Write the structure tokens for this entry.
Amino acid sequence: MSELKRQTELVETIVLKYLPDPEDRHQHTVIEAMNYSVTAGGKRLRPLIMQETYRMFRGQDEVVEPFMAAIEMIHTYSLVHDDLPSLDNDTLRRGRETTWKKYGDAMGLLAGDGLLNYAYETALKSFDLIEKEESLFDTSPETAYSRYQSCAKALRILADKAGINGMVGGQCLDVEASLNNMTLTEEELLFIHEHKTAALIQAAFMIGGALAGAGKRQIERLERIGYNIGVAFQIRDDCLDVIGDPAELGKNTGSDEKDEKRTYVTLHGLEQSEADERRLTEEALELLEGLPGKHDFMVELLMSLLGRRN
Amino acid sequence: MSELKRQTELVETIVLKYLPDPEDRHQHTVIEAMNYSVTAGGKRLRPLIMQETYRMFRGQDEVVEPFMAAIEMIHTYSLVHDDLPSLDNDTLRRGRETTWKKYGDAMGLLAGDGLLNYAYETALKSFDLIEKEESLFDTSPETAYSRYQSCAKALRILADKAGINGMVGGQCLDVEASLNNMTLTEEELLFIHEHKTAALIQAAFMIGGALAGAGKRQIERLERIGYNIGVAFQIRDDCLDVIGDPAELGKNTGSDEKDEKRTYVTLHGLEQSEADERRLTEEALELLEGLPGKHDFMVELLMSLLGRRN
């Protein structure tokens, strides 16, 4: 089994471990819908990046796990709300019915709300893990305080990159553009890519670093790496909407063309897009070299995205 | 000017201070829609309760302010999403158009998401205020750590009471009941009231206490007070849907009857409902007596809810 496959399975276990239990409760339907969305699979790219960044700076440790699950919940809630009839009206994702298609649009809305909120409930569990660890090793109050601060810093990054100055902000311009049939400028399109897609990938790198005690300059470098990887990822998505195979992708292609949507590919052409995807990735790998720890798996992970087919 | 009016105006200023600035940005529409929803007015009950509980335990202090704004944002996001066509399909709230009616349902959805996420961004600012305060007074790391812990505790309460085990959980059963024309049992109706309405009012009391350093038993008592006040508040809402004046309420009445919805009033009758509202409030005031600090304004605030007309 490849290291990527092995790590993805490990991450899968961690994400599942933090999902709520539907049990026999009055709110079991919304919990089922939340879990249906999260367990639909996917690359688990954000938690993989976060865990590996944390390892580079600090090694293996449980404290990062709640944030790994949390970022995947936020990514998933954004897909669940995107798919709703009032936004993209999509019925198929990752080869199965979208959440609202299966549970109705009222429950799709609530499942998204539930996931976003549960992401914060989950990330906050890192504080408990730190408290447990501190009392276990009977560390000094200075150490305890400083680890608590790193957790607060990670929460701030998550909230900032997920919200109106990050993912939701990008989503907003994207929605306005389609509602008003706007022809996006290159700058506007880049704003959408940076915010809607790259912000959460930046958060994955930055939170991994922040939680592990990385310094300010190192976190800024992680932010730049995340920017490059995030924008490259979105360029690839735009390419796949043209040249991808619906069976491999688990979703329909050609939707951008059908919607006459301006994308990186319509602006720059396929060849230039693929060249830019490669350049952004290579720049990210160069930036990575200035960071501590072993980089073998991070390089493998980032290279696996380049030219991906789904 | 009555003390209640004066305090409400103070709280209003604090809530507005923490709203995002739309400026001239690509995401200005979603920010405008968020601010439109929050500035629609309302009683500001949750931040009022939170501030007064904090005062009882610790006195006047800036650290509670971000949480006061945050809880109002969460309350508002829940109304914005509730009003959407896929849920209640309401067009009028607090005497003006609902958010989706004014900005379209795609932007209504995003404004709700933006508000929920921004609530956490905002609450996290309490950590900054604590850091500033600690460095200002050059306190011991033990003190700094313990204040940080109280802030983490407040965040946990907020996330728990706003999510699937709180507000979203209550909303879920309420939605399922209307979609499936379920006749609610008394126990199910109470579950909805406890979760959809009381949970966030409990959070207001509990966060005020937790942030101010209240002990475990005191926070449990605050939770019970919040339960009583929250359920009494919802009973009053059910009464007002029957006997309220639409002009005073700023929304349409009779919707429960029209929807053949089972409410506290349909289950117990108007007279019993009003008696229960009073009993729950009086019990809360008795519980309050066991807590430290001055209670004059808290009593005035809670009594102002009893038999309210809007």
About this structure: The mean pLDDT of chain A is 94. The domain at 3-305 of chain A is CATH 1.10.600.10 (Farnesyl Diphosphate Synthase). The radius of gyration of chain A is 19 Å.
